Amino acid sequence: MASIFENVPTAPEDVIFALSAAYKADTVPEKVNLGADQILVNDQSLDHEYLPILGLDSFRKASVKLILGADSKAIAEGRAGSAQCISGTGAVYTGARFLSLHYPIKGATCYISKPTWANHRAIFEGVGIPVKEYPYWDPVSRGLDLKGMLATMEEAPNGSIFLMHPCAHNPTGVDPTPDQWKQIADALEAKGHFTFFDTAYQGFASGSLDKDAYSVRYFAERGFEMFIAQSYSKNFGLYSERAGNLTIVARTPEIKKSIESQIAKIQRAVISNPPAYGARVVSTVLNDEKLYSEWEDNLSTMANRIIDMRKAVFEELTRLGTPGTWDHIVSQIGMFSFTGLTTPQVKVMKEKYHIYLTDNGRISMAGLNTGNCKYFASAVDDVVRNH
Fold first, then answer.
1. Average pLDDT over residues 155-170
2. Which of 40, 245, 248, 344 could be joined to 230 by an S-S link, Cβ 3.0–4.6 Å?
3. Do 165 and 111 touch, CB atoms closer than 8 A?
4. Across the beta sheet with 194-199, what order do the strands follow?
């Protein structure tokens, strides 16, 4: 099967950073770096030198393995590449910028879910890629509008770009089932659409890193070429460190290298080099069996706490006899929940109860605890009954 990126040329290495890489790789003790003011310290843990343009190698490899799985065929065949980016936002931007320059179907539209994270539209439109929406949230069932989603994929021009959330959809908390992912993959494959995943919550949705990566791994197994933006802000709590990665799954190792070279060129012009500290923290954990196991346990604990809060809200609304159906509170997944509250009802929640949520009725489940859960449910009960 031909690659959509087979005509992407390989960009030349940046001269300065290629020189630095060659110096670091040289094992001769007498080596001397005259490229710039080089300060060497004996304690390598105090190294504040630039990372390579594509980032910390151990971080990148571990990130690809985390999302694609240790037994990934794409990794084994050398078709999976990566670039360390400025968290998830930077990963989405870098992938979008590459597509704006090298996607062979000029003028191709990027389709984003309705609703989605607000920055998705801004990023793609900011690099000159037109944006349209595909149906996702069904306000009647308060679940996935699969029929509308598939219809848009079938109607979109061949080779369109589809941006999707692998797990813990933001803001609805509604995720496709494995069978629905199969139908989505069939629709995308039939029209030759390009898949761009944005995963900000791996491990934080179900509590299982593998389960939350199901859709990405399924698409990879089916042979899709795709980009996957990864963020470590939530699942590592590294919000301010901006640790992220763009994983690339290409048709061949050669095409992967060409894509990486062009992404390096993009990064050089925008950030030069990604920051080291957050990437080193993530790399240390992902590459240490004991720390990795402890991290998995912590993620499971956090995810289960959110699941418990969902159950508590649902049970309290049921006890109060709040009008309407509230099953969606427990069927949704991840940090966010689309409550179904209207904008006027949200206004009352803010002004009368001092409970702050977005105008579209989205709440962060992480903000609920055993101390405020009943208060929140009581407020919802009031606004649903009286407003």
1. 96
2. 245
3. no
4. 80-86, 243-249, 226-231, 194-199, 161-164, 110-114, 131-135
3-class DSSP assignment, residue 29:
coil
**What is the per-residue pLDDT across 172-182, written as a single tens digit (0 to 9) for each?**
889 999 999 99
Catalytic option among 137, 145, 181, 234: 234
Residue 228 has pLDDT above 90, yes or no: yes
Q: Give the pair of three-digit tokens for residue 318.
A: 């049921």
Which is the catalytic residue, given 117, 137, 295, 326?
A: 117
Is the Cβ–Cβ distance between 90 and 271 less than 8 Å?
Answer: yes
Residue 255's pLDDT is 95
Q: How far apart are CA 156 and CA 195, in angstroms?
A: 13
Comparing CA positions, the residue from 48, 65, 20 lying closest to residue 277 is 48
Catalytic residue chosen out of the listed positions 145, 175, 181, 198: 198
Residue-wise pLDDT tens digits, 250-271: 999 999 999 999 999 999 999 9
The answer to whether residue 137 is catalytic is: no
* Rounded-to-integer distance, Cα 147 and Cα 134, Å: 11
User: Angle, nearest 10°, between helix axes 87-102 and 253-270?
Assistant: 110
CB burial readout 195-210, b (16+ within 10 A) else e:
bbbbbbbbbbbbbbbe
Q: Which amino acid is at 381?
A: D
* Residues constituting the chain: 387
Closest-CA residue to 4 (of 126, 90, 108, 131): 108
